[in-house]
Design goal:
This protein is of the alpha+beta class and about 650 residues long. It has four domains: about 210 residues, Histidine kinase-like ATPase, C-terminal domain (Heat Shock Protein 90); about 170 residues, 2-Layer Sandwich (Ribosomal Protein S5, domain 2); about 130 residues, 3-Layer(aba) Sandwich (Rossmann fold), CATH 3.40.50; about 35 residues, no CATH class. Helix content is about 35%, strand content about 20%. The strands form six sheets. Strands 2, 3, 7, 8, 9, 10, 11, 12 and 13 form a nine-stranded mixed beta sheet that branches. The radius of gyration is 28 Å and the shape is globular.
Length: about 650
């Protein structure tokens, strides 16, 4: 394990005063263009506003001054966030002749994160979080506990309605800290209802990143109170162990932690017996979902460390045996976590999805290379397991390369090379095109007859396809149905992927509404999630919803997509009278003729499509591993736990 240094606490409570607060501008722009500050005004922006307040509390913990964060979802749709940190300063700022609390809550870019003396690292929206949330709230109040006293101020849409005044009593027994309660403004947000699971994911993520910090989430809105608590002593090591649960890890988690100047780097990694890569990266408490320079530095170091150690012990003898970056990713689970001064962070784009600081790449690379080399030297048996894993991946890569070259060379993306089973569309603009992956030749024939051939393509998927959760890329390429699908989509697979060449911007799964159809659908979802994830991440994957019932009264025909719709349709069509009703239950697409399939399932003006999205990557990964992996006990436990809620079609 690499050497680590303890982060020093940034300042004592008594040293955190109004002098630490700097002001850049007022709040006027926030209500005019809220999307510039929180991304959007839909449910995503709503939850971003709450995360800003939560991260202010987390920043106190990162600075070494808080041990607990409470989040309460109140019955009146307001939300309360409490921490036991130092409390926002309340003394007067001479240049404004106002309390520091009021300045922090009513001025943009005012906070202890500017100037670097109160917070070394932070995860908030560049220190503007509290004031932005205040401006976008119908009302808000802050209660500060400092120096044995309690102070409070109230606001309406960012404007103070009271002064900062000392109060005698409080609902909290904490000696220090901050309580913030706010009601999001209906004039700004399309919804003000917070989602319990979304918040739960956000605080669980932060609990892994800040070991020793307790999170308490309480939802008072329903008939029964819901509560979850998170605390992880092991930090990102615990996160890697959680991700690798049920995946047969090959060795203990490797943990690297080191400071380089004012930058701290933490890395945890562990290989498992699977083939999928699962790597997460963070800067402070921000999830950099698109990676960046810190992730690039880690990957470079991992490849170099594996190659150097392999050559040192004689496993790799010449350049032909060299391991590539792709080889080191197979079965890899890792978390790369960088903590650095907030004012130095450079993100690419407004969403903070990718770190752009060039100087971070060599820092992470050096720390990772030193830490990995030390681990390999001190743990030769575990190092050999890793070498064996990546060497097998290299052999599979070479086999897959030959197979892919045979399939994808000679302009496989052009019409003459497309699979014979594909009934392509006439349109060449991918943004206007869609492809239906249809279960069975019979249903595909019906879909071909019923489609609009200008923009709708049909590809039959015959029978149960390969379970790609358990297969290497070379086996996937050799499987006929998947080979046809890869060529039809046109974007390649593995290291040949070029998303710009995707030929359809709507990839639609259309299977029968029975157990076999659902199984095929699950196998296809597994393939896309594991091997063409960009199609899912960019929102291009859909599931068609054929009707379950055809209801006919005389010549009047209606279709229902659920039992509830069926009952409502029968009631409406008979108007409560005893009229002969013919109800047909569709079990397969082949039971509909071409006109019916077009009208109910393929006509853009009538059809119902479910877009496949991933809100929680960690949870999605765990579900695919559990349902489609080799380990039977977790799957058996899942089935037993959920059997009572299953809908059976018998």
């Amino acid at each position: 394990m690499a050497d680590s240094k303890k982060q020093t606490k940034s300042s004592k409570s008594s040293d955190y005063t109004a002098s630490h607060i700097q002001v850049l501008e007022g709040l006027e722009p926030v209500r005019k263009r809220p999307g510039m500050y929180i991304g959007s005004t839909d449910t995503i922006g709503l939850h971003e506003s709450l995360r800003e307040i939560i991260d202010n509390a987390v920043d106190e913990a990162l600075a070494g001054h808080a041990k607990n964060v409470w989040i309460m979802l109140n019955k009146d749709s307001s939300t309360t966030v409490v921490d036991d940190g130092r409390g926002i300063p309340v003394d007067i700022m001479p240049q404004y002749k106002k309390s520091a609390l009021e300045i922090v809550m009513t001025k943009l870019h005012a906070g202890g994160k500017f100037g670097g003396s109160a917070y070394k690292v932070s995860g908030g929206l560049h220190g503007v979080g509290s004031s932005v949330v205040n401006a976008l709230s119908e009302w808000m109040w802050i209660e500060v506990r400092r120096n044995g006293k309690i102070y409070r101020q109230e606001y309406k849409r960012g404007v103070p309605t009271t002064g900062v005044k000392e109060v005698k009593s409080s609902n909290s027994e904490l000696k220090s800290g901050t309580t913030a309660t706010f009601l999001p403004d209906k004039q700004v947000f399309s919804t003000i209802e917070f989602d319990f699971d979304t918040i739960k994911k956000a605080i669980r993520e932060r609990a892994y990143l800040v070991p020793g910090l307790y999170f308490h989430l309480v939802d008072e809105r329903g008939e029964e109170k819901k509560e979850v608590n998170y605390y992880f002593e092991g930090g990102i090591k615990s996160l890697v162990e959680k991700i690798n649960e049920n995946k047969n890890p090959l060795h203990n988690v490797i943990f690297i932690n080191k400071h380089e100047g004012d930058v701290e780097v933490e890395i945890a990694l562990q290989y498992n017996e699977g083939y999928a890569e699962n790597v997460e990266s963070y800067v402070n408490v921000i999830n950099t979902v698109n990676g960046g320079t810190h992730l690039t530095g880690f990957r470079m170091a991992l490849t170099r460390a594996v190659n150097d150690y392999g050559k040192k012990i004689g496993s790799f003898k010449n350049g032909d045996d060299a391991i590539t970056g792709d080889d080191t990713r197979e079965g890899l689970t890792a978390v790369v976590y960088v903590k650095m001064p907030q004012d130095r962070i450079q993100f690419e784009g407004q969403t903070k999805g990718k770190l752009g600081n060039a100087e971070i790449q060599p820092i992470v690379a050096q720390i990772a290379k030193e830490g990995l080399s030390t681990f390999f030297e001190e743990n030769p048996s575990e190092a050999r397991k890793i070498l064996e894993k990546v060497y097998l991946a290299a052999k599979a890569r070479l086999a897959a390369k030959a197979a892919k070259e045979a399939i994808l060379r000679k302009g496989a993306l052009e019409g003459s090379s497309l699979p014979g089973k594909l009934w392509d569309c006439q349109e060449k603009d991918a943004s206007q095109c869609e492809i239906y992956l249809v279960e069975g030749d019979s249903a595909a024939g019906t879909a071909k007859s019923g489609r609009d051939r200008k923009f709708q393509a049909i590809l039959p998927i015959g029978g149960k396809i390969l379970n790609t959760e358990r297969a290497r890329l070379d086996k996937i390429i050799e499987f006929e149905e998947l080979k046809n699908l890869i060529i039809a989509l046109g974007m390649g697979i593995g290291e040949t992927v070029n998303f710009e060449k995707l030929r359809y911007h709507r990839v639609i799964l259309m299977t029968d509404a029975d157990v076999d159809g659902e199984h095929i659908e699950t196998l296809l979802l597994t393939f896309f999630y594991r091997h063409l994830p960009d199609i899912v991440k960019k929102g291009f994957l859909y599931v068609a919803q054929p009707p379950l019932y055809k209801i006919q009264v005389g010549k009047d025909i209606q279709y229902a997509y659920s039992d509830e719709e069926k009952d409502q349709a029968i009631k409406a069509m008979t108007d409560g009278k005893k009229t002969a009703v013919n109800v047909q239950r569709y079990k397969g697409l082949g039971e509909m003729n071409a006109d019916q399939l077009w009208e109910t399932t393929m006509n853009p003006s009538n059809r119902i499509l479910k877009q496949v999205t991933i809100e929680d990557l960690e949870e999605a990964d765990a579900v695919f591993t559990m349902l489609m992996g080799d380990e039977v006990p977790p799957r058996k436990h899942f089935i037993q736990s959920n059997a009572k809620t299953a809908t059976l079609d018998v």
